[in-house]
Amino acid sequence: AFEDIVARNLIEIRKYGFGDSSDDSTKLDWTAHQFWTIVKLLTQKKSINYDEIKWSSSFNGSDAPLKAMERAELIVIIQKDGRSHSIRPGKPVYYTVFNRLIEDTIFNASMEIESNMALKKQSEENMAKLEDNINKLTHINSADRLPKEIEARIRFLLTKVESCQKTIEEYDTKIKTSKEIISKAWAEEDQEDNHNGKEKTQEKKRGFFFF
After folding, report:
1. Which residue ranges make up each domain of the chain?
2. Which has the closest alpha carbon to 112: 47, 15, 185?
3. How far apart are alpha carbons 33 and 195 in whole angstroms?
4. Which pLDDT score, from 0 to 100, does residue 191 have?
5. pLDDT tens per residue across span 25-68
6. What is the mean pLDDT of the chain?
7. Cα–Cα separations (whole angstroms), residue 4 to 55, 60, 91, 168, 196
8. CA pair distance 207, 196, nearest whole angstrom
9. How far is CA 123 from CA 32, 34, 48, 69, 163, in A?
10. What is the per-residue burial (b if ≥16 Cβ within 10 Å, else e) of 42-64?
11. Among 6-10, 38-42, 142-146, which stretch is predicted with the lowest mean pLDDT?
12. Whose CA is closest to 57, among 173, 177, 181, 170?
């Protein structure tokens, strides 16, 4: 009975949490990447720090997606002293459901690709803004040498560009690794399906000769 409950909730989470539905009218007020971040954290601990997740790179200070998840009953936001304090699953059974999602190798790797692609895009946009600022500062006047304050600012921005580039490369590596995991897991599943198919065929043949 418990497995039936888990299976039913697993389908609901895929549909309403990740938008895994053929119904195009199902518009989520959060991204699959954002919900995946919550899912992963709640498989590691029973509750997560509200402000920490709010200010993470996945949410960038916006609590609108978190409030929307609570309205959808995917999570519960615990209040303390009149403010949002922590986050827990919308139902106790979701602890089990979230772990099942993590254990699904192909789904896990697919969500890691989607998450890292979203974070990579965000970093690329940040880097483009930094490079634009540097370009504007280098053309701030027609003098041969820029003021020391401007040079210091450019050096600071260049270090941020370098940091962004390293982060983008890390995301690329994670995306590549996740794609390799998907290919390997699919091949193993396909091999197992073929093996099971052959066994069933042999059983049918034995049954035919028996009768």
Report:
1. 2-98, 105-210
2. 185
3. 35
4. 74
5. 468 999 999 999 999 999 999 999 999 999 999 999 999 999 99
6. 90
7. 37, 37, 15, 42, 25
8. 17
9. 18, 16, 25, 25, 10
10. bbeeeebebeebbeeebbeeebe
11. 142-146
12. 170
Q: Give the whole-angstrom CA distance, residue 171 versus residue 95.
A: 28
Percentage of residues of the chain with pLDDT beyond 70: 87
Answer yes or no: are the C-beta atoms of 157 and 133 closer than 8 Å.
yes
| Tokens coding 84 | 């949002």
Identity (one letter) of the amino acid at 151?
A: E
pLDDT at 188 over 50: yes
Cα dihedral 189, 191, 192, 196 sign: positive
Quick one: fold of 2-98? Answer: Arc Repressor Mutant, subunit A (1.10.10)
How is residue 148 written in tokens?
């020391």
**Closest to 47 in 3D by CA, of 16, 82, 77:** 77
Q: Helices 94-103 and 105-138 meet at what angle, rounded to 10? A: 80
